[in-house]
Amino acid sequence: MRLSVAHQSRPKLGEVRNGDMALVRTEGSHTLLVVVDALGHGTAAAEVAAEARRCLERMPLDGGVEPLMDAVHAALRNGRGAAIMMGLFDGKTLQCGGVGNVELRARGTRVPVVPTPGILGQSMRSLRTVSAVLAPGDRLVLFSDGLSFRLDLETARKLPPNEACMLLMERYARPSDDATVMVADVEN
């Protein structure tokens, strides 16, 4: 199985730089899905998100979510920090975990992820991770708190990932915050 993924991100109304970031990276049979929400807005937050991206682009993907999260936590230490949601798909199983107020919701297979309280780069409890075997037709939606947590996956159920991202952003993004949404569909 493989993932068909799209994402959309935009800065807070009135800002030029975005403190949110989405990353999709494939290495061998692994696909990494990440949404980062750096604390605050503007240039300083954008630099934190860029540092998280640089860290995740150089890490091997075959070790699981925990070493990836530990590496980002170390890379962001002594800065303003970030919330993050991360999923690692190996073609069959999704392993995921998050820190702070970034969400992952699934349609189809249940993925009972509960983000770990804290701020990546500052303080957090032991990372909670979950794994779920995915099936064709499942949909994953990762999003920052720049979108309302009242987000309804059914509104975009029949749309392809890119159109679903646009609709979810249009309907649920808050103008007072940076906003990022990622939609990933599991396909044969």
By DSSP (H or I, 4+ residues per run), the number of helices equals: 3
Alpha-beta classification: alpha+beta
How are the strands ordered across the major sheet?
2-3-4-5-9
- The end-to-end distance, rounded to whole angstroms, is 4 Å
What proportion of the residues form beta strands (DSSP E)?
Answer: 35-45%
Overall form: globular
CATH architectural name: 4-Layer Sandwich
Description:
This is SpoIIE family protein phosphatase. Residues 16-186 form the PPM-type phosphatase domain. It comes from Pyxidicoccus parkwayensis. With 188 residues, the protein is of the alpha+beta class. The chain has one domain: Phosphatase 2c, domain 1 (4-Layer Sandwich). Helix content is 21%, strand content 37%. A five-stranded antiparallel beta sheet has the order 2-3-4-5-9, with helices on one face. Strands 1-11-10-6 form a four-stranded antiparallel beta sheet, covered by helices on one side. The radius of gyration is 15 Å and the shape is globular.
Q: Summarize this, please?
A:
This protein is of the alpha+beta class.
